[in-house]
């Protein structure tokens, strides 16, 4: 099924859809979570983007902190025996614009813009997403920016592609590490 039609708010929620994955969430909207595939520790898993390893070298808490929107994803593969999750990028189209916005309680507001455009022989996609909320209680607020740029050149079976991503995540960490703080 096309990822764009699934009822998820983040790429992390798509991963959690698999029965082999246990995603221990500390907050909503993919703020921070620990990934466990078939009972493994969160630092024993591999996260890849188009088969390129992206694990966080400092801690496994941020392995799923990826600058992707679901307009950028073609599919997500959960490879249970190798404890690996592979995010596969959707190829940029010749042209097209996607716009999504949603809002909710506690000043929740999500804005997402993704557009495809040609530049000489290269197909390009630029995506910008912003999610913000005042939080359900003190120190549970968040302000997230995801930015990505993907360019692709294909000719006679040869492929050159380039992906750039940037994330900025500011969030309150109430009860992330203890029940009192």
Summing up helix and strand content along with how strands pair, one would put the structural category as mainly beta
Strand order of the largest sheet: 7-8-9-10-11
Order of helices and strands: HEEEEEEEEEEE
Strand content: over 45%
Envelope shape: globular
Average pLDDT works out at 82
| Overall strand count | 11
Low-confidence stretches: none
Largest sheet: 5 strands, antiparallel
Structural description of this entry:
With 181 residues, this protein is mainly beta. It has one helix and eleven strands. The strands form three sheets. It has a five-stranded antiparallel β-sheet with strand order 7-8-9-10-11, with no helix packed on it. Strands 4-3-6-5 form a four-stranded mixed β-sheet. The mean pLDDT is 82.
Features:
181 residues, mainly beta, five-stranded antiparallel sheet, four-stranded mixed sheet, 11 strands, globular
Short description:
The protein is built from one helix and eleven strands; from the N terminus they run H-E-E-E-E-E-E-E-E-E-E-E. It is mainly beta.
